[in-house]
Specification:
The structure holds two protein chains of two kinds.
Chain A (H helix, E strand, L loop, with lengths): L6 E7 L6 E8 L3 H12 L7 E6 L11 H5 L23
Antiparallel strand pairs in A: 1-2, 1-3
Chain B lengths: L14 H12 L12 H20 L1 H5 L8 H26 L5 H9 L17 H21 L5 H29 L3 H20 L11 H6 L7 H19 L9 E3 L4 E3 L5 H11 L3 H14 L1 H21 L1
Antiparallel strand pairs in B: 1-2
Helix pairs in contact in B: 2-4, 4-7, 6-7, 6-8, 6-10
The chains are: A alpha+beta, B mainly alpha.
Chain lengths: 94, 325
């Protein structure tokens, strides 16, 4: 069995002014090839104005087990949200 | 459906972990690739998504058959676009399966050596141009029935690929119905072709949903895991109820003398397909089963040099780049 083509993650900017969004993955031998394949697989209906491809092996992801240490500290900091503060109606829009 | 007779794998995991996992699914949470999941969930999904992907890929063959013989340049361009979509759907699904730890080559090899199946519907031949209409209208119509609810399936990558697929599938069904309208309103000979296509594709389309729930012993676990969203009978009924008025609109007759509206249940009563034929097709004895796998095997073998050459070219370019730095 021959070696498989590496896996790439594909990100597409849907419209000018929006950020790139992950849309899926594909196999390709190099970056130019990945862009070419991403064009065929993910933008057949003008879904984007810009494509990013990243070798999947180069992505570092947080582990589901780290959920508590990463996100729990935010639980008791509700004051970070504007709705924490009661502003009297008389003050008007703020 | 595109994935038929998927047997849920037994799972022998830590009961506590299983309970937490089930609670997440019951709460409507999505399971993502790096999350803990029962071994049975993983194995069942690989088989289900893999079979779904294979169906998309093999499903290109009966339609590819007509690309060079489409009646007009416009029809040819549309059919090409549709077949290209099927390839895309296969790729989305293969990638979803790969997140579960199986490789693309392994999946392909399992299809070629018969360890994995594809949908029974694609083992039938497409004999006339009207079959392109019937396939889009009935086969893609049946697929949509199943794929729309699967957008809510519990496995994140599978659900997301379903969202993309459903967006595109509606074009497929409508282009099929458009062909049928043209044929059904055409000459006597064209009408006969349209009716003949419906006659041949009706029961195989009903088979796509799989055997009756009474005989389907695998559903319960898959339903609990939310990788199967509706029962086979439920979806088949929905499909018949939707399709009969469409056939009436076309002025075509569903090849089922027992077909009748049942006021009480608010749906049609209809004849079951011949299930012995279904099991036979699934075993690889369909009219085109051998031809389909031969075509896949040939494509795989003939493109081996391309897969190797592209890798070699990329390695050479990389080496040149490193040398220049």
């Amino acid at each position: 069995m021959t070696k498989e083509w590496p896996l790439w993650e594909v990100f597409i900017r849907g419209q000018h002014g929006l950020s790139h969004r992950h849309v899926g993955s594909l196999h390709a031998t190099d970056a130019a090839h990945a862009i070419q394949n991403a064009r065929d697989v993910y933008t057949r209906r003008k879904e984007g104005v810009s494509i990013w491809v990243v070798p999947a092996a180069d992505i570092t992801a947080s582990s589901p087990d780290d959920k508590e240490s990463l996100y729990d500290p935010a639980d008791d900091k509700v004051y970070r949200h504007p709705t924490f503060f009661d502003i009297p109606d008389d003050v008007g829009a703020m | 459906m595109y994935a038929q007779m998927i047997k849920s794998e037994a799972t022998q995991d830590d009961p506590e972990k299983l309970a937490t996992f089930q609670a997440r699914i019951d709460a409507g949470e999505k399971i993502e690739p790096k999350d803990w999941m029962p071994a049975g969930y993983r194995k069942t999904l690989i088989r289900q998504i893999g079979q779904h992907a294979h169906s998309e890929i093999v499903g290109q063959l009966p339609e590819g058959n007509w690309i060079t013989r489409a009646p007009t340049l416009e029809r040819k361009a549309i059919l090409l676009a549709k077949v290209q979509d099927e390839a895309g759907h296969g790729l989305y699904l293969y990638c979803a399966a790969e997140t579960l730890g199986v490789s693309r080559d392994e999946l392909t090899e399992m299809l070629l050596d018969g360890r994995m199946k594809y949908s029974s519907i694609f083992a039938y031949p497409t004999l006339t141009w009207a079959d392109m209409g019937a396939v889009g209208w009935l086969v893609d119509g049946a697929a949509i029935m199943n794929q729309v609810p699967l957008q809510r399936t519990s496995y994140g990558p599978y659900a997301r690929s379903m969202v993309r697929i459903c967006k595109e599938e509606s074009f497929h069904q409508r282009q099929g119905f458009d062909i049928m309208m043209k044929m059904a309103n055409g000459t006597e000979a064209q009408k006969r072709m349209a009716q003949d296509a419906l006659n041949r594709f009706w029961y195989p389309s009903l088979m796509m949903f799989g055997p009756s729930d009474k005989e389907s012993v695998h559903s319960e676990q898959s339903m609990a895991w939310k990788i199967k969203m509706n029962s086979n009978d439920e979806l088949r009924q929905k499909f018949v109820d939707q399709t009969v008025p469409q056939a009436e609109y076309l002025g075509l007759t569903i090849p089922d003398e027992t077909l009748a509206w049942n006021e009480e249940k608010g749906g049609y009563d209809f004849a079951e397909p011949d299930w012995s034929e279904f099991f036979d097709v699934l075993k690889g004895n369909g009219p085109c089963s051998v031809e389909r796998i031969e075509a896949r095997q040939k494509a795989w073998d003939d493109s081996a040099w391309v897969r190797e050459a592209r890798l070699a070219h990329a390695a050479k370019k990389q080496a040149a780049k490193v040398a220049a730095e």
